[in-house]
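Board notes (copied after class):
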Amino acid sequence: MIEFAKLSKQEKEKYIKFLVDNKIEFQQSDQGFTASFKVQNKENVDPSRKSIEQIKRASSYLRTPTRSVSPLRRKFTREDAINLIQEIYSKKFDDASKQLKLKNVVNEDFGVYVMRFAQNKQIDIKDCMQIQDENVFLFKKFLQKEYEEEDLMYYLFLRAIVEKEIGQSIYQSKKSLDLQKQYLSVGQVQSIISTVYENQVDEVQELLDYFMNHFENNRISAFDFMALALEKYNNDRKPQDKKILIGEQVINELQKFFYQEVEECTEQLFDQVKLIVNDLLQSIFRQDKRIWINRVQNAKPEDVLYLEGLQKQFKSLSANKQDIKLFSRKVLQTPQLSRCFGKLLE
């Protein structure tokens, strides 16, 4: 108990200030005025003993909603998409090259690889996928497995050779090359093909002729060249019907000959050439000599023997590209075939 009368002047002032600040109430009795209060540590105060007003004041702050406002994102552009795609291609090729050197090849799904890349970069790959552009469409084909892992590695290998040919990296941190605006000459395409196929003369010339059909003003965009090369590589890998391959090879050879050597060759004339060749091919494929004999009418014994030899060889023929080419040349050397063409040109 504190007796106010016995306090010093300074102690009285402090005591009065304490009573006023804490709104202490006084009770009057016969002995005078008394004030009662209990001192507690702040940490040990029971929240249930707080006044209703204090709880209300506190709860109003607790209920105040907090809202985080994310900064405005810059719109994802075509250039952003190209840059991102080329960065992924570069990193994938570098990673694959390192694995080959270490003889530690990891067959990781390309979609998983891209998602892991995006997470590390803290980017949303969906922004890129929404861009309407040929670069994005091709990239999606790799993700959706329209092209397999082997096709992807061929494309990345070809891409590296194109970089050497043009003398600069396709991926550049600020702005990658736009391959649709980067053009290749005939000489550059031939150089690239020679590197890919290690100077196999027949392969190089055949591919060069193929790409030349897509040139404009003696040039082709690097993007179109790489896309065509990828498509051809993918098709060549797939098992194909040897009948179709032989037919295409024979017709292509005849087309070159007739349009180069026969001055008056027209589309109508060449259609008749194809009808003659079709009878010969069907006679081989269906193992039916009568089809060709009826066409030539005056077949000699040696003609029949040659045809039987083609029929027998066809049965065991593989779809290997070189085997198809050699067999097609034998078909074109069929004795009566040149005589049929001669009558057509009379």
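Comment from the instructor: The chain has three domains: 1-37, 78-237, 242-345. Residues 242-345 form one domain.
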